[in-house]
Amino acid sequence: MTGLTDYTADAQLNWITGSIAMPPLPAVWMALFTGVGNDSGAGFAEVATAGTGYARAQVAGTDPTSAATAVGNAILNFASAVPSWIVPGMRIFDHSQSAAIPPGTTVLSIAGSSVTMSANAAAPGVGVGDVIGFTAFGGPSGSSPSQIANTGQINFPTAQTSWGQVVAFGLYDAANGGDLLDWDYLGNYVWEPTTVNSASPAVMTSHVHGFNVGDPVVWSTEFGGVSPTFSQSNFTGILTVTAPVTADSYTVVNAGTAVNTSGTGSGSMRKIVEQQIPTGVTASFVAGAMILTAA
Fold first, then answer.
1. What's phi and psi for 108, nearest 5 deg?
2. 57 Cβ contact partners less than 8 Å away, ≥ 6 residues apart
3. Nearest Cα to 100, choosing from 77, 61, 62, 68?
4. Dihedral sign, CA of 211, 217, 222, 228?
5. What is the secondary structure of 113-130 as a DSSP string?
6. What average pLDDT does the chain have?
C-alpha cells in the first residue's frame, strides 16, 4: 500500500518509544517503478539500469560548510563545487544549529562552491563545519494522512533506451539497493471509498468519483473493507475505467478483460498516472508532482 514501508514504520515506532535515535539520513534517492510491490519493500519493478541510462535521482543529503555565514548574510560556503543534485527550490536546514537558518529557507541560486539562500542567516549564524541539509521536499501538510510534496523540479538522466511505462516512485536510503522508505503512485489523486456489487461485469460505486473512461485506477483494502470474489483473478494491478460511467458508478477492465464478481466487496479506488519514458527523453517532474504520504 502507498505510504511508509514496514522498514520506516518500525523505525518510527522504535524512535518515538525511545529505543533508537533517528538522526537525519546522510542522503536519500528517488527511484522510478514500472510495477509496485508490498509494504515489506519487496516486489517493486524499478527501471532497469543496464544500457538504459537510468539512475536514481538524489533528492536529499548533507554537506558541511567550509566557512562561517554571519547573521544577516545569505551565502553558504563549501569546500568544493556544490553537487549537481542540489538545485534551486530545495529547502535548507542547519543540522548543527537549527536556529541559524530560518524555517522555509530554500536554495535561491548556486555559483561554484557557494549557495545563495532565500533568507539571511539568523542568530547564532552558520558556523564552520556545520552540517547543512538539503531536500527537494517541502514541509508535511499536517493533515491526516500527512502529505509532503517536492518543492522544486526533480531531474533524472536522459533515457538511452525506453524506460517503459512508469507508474510509481519511491525513496531509498542508497543510490543502489538499500531500504525502500516510502512510495506512491504518480498523480495527485485521493483514494475514493468504493463498494463493488456482485455482477458480470462488476459495478464500482464511488460517490462523485470523477473518473472517466480510459482512466487507469488501482484498488486497495488497506484502509478497510474486503475485496469482492472475482471469477477471473483479474481484480488486481492496474485497472482501466470503462463504460458505463455515471457520476457515482463505473466498471473496470484488466488488460481489456472485464472484471466479473460473484460476491460483494468494499475498499478504496484511486486514479493514477502512467508515464511512458521513451529513448532520448530526459525524465523530469515539476514542483508538486511527487507527493508522499505517511499512511
1. -90, -45
2. 29, 30, 85, 154, 155, 156
3. 68
4. positive
5. TEEEESS---TT-BPTT-
6. 93
pLDDT of 206 over the 90 cut: yes
Higher pLDDT among residues 289 and 246, named by residue: 246
Residues 191/220, Cβ–Cβ less than 8 Å: yes
User: Identity (one letter) of the amino acid at 78?
Assistant: F
* 3: pLDDT strictly greater than 90: no
Asked if residues 134 and 28 have their Cβ atoms less than 8 Å apart, the reply is no
Q: What angle do CA 53, 189, 48 make, to 5 degrees?
A: 15
Q: Say what the pTM is.
A: 0.91
User: Does residue 141 surpass a pLDDT of 90?
Assistant: no
Buried b (16+ CB within 10 A) or exposed e, 114-141: bbebbebbbeebbeeebbbbbbbbbeee
Which among 194, 193, 197, 269 has a CA at the least distance from the CA of 228? Answer: 197
What does the pLDDT look like over 213-263, one tens digit per residue?
Answer: 999 999 999 888 999 998 667 888 999 999 999 999 999 999 999 999 999
C-alpha cell at 71: 547573521
- Right CATH for 192-271 from 2.60.40, 3.30.420, 2.40.30, 2.60.120: 2.40.30
Residues whose CB falls within 8 Å of the CB of residue 162, separated by 6 or more in sequence, listed in order: 52, 276, 277, 278, 279
Could you tell me where in the chain the CATH 2.40.30 domains are found? Answer: 192-271
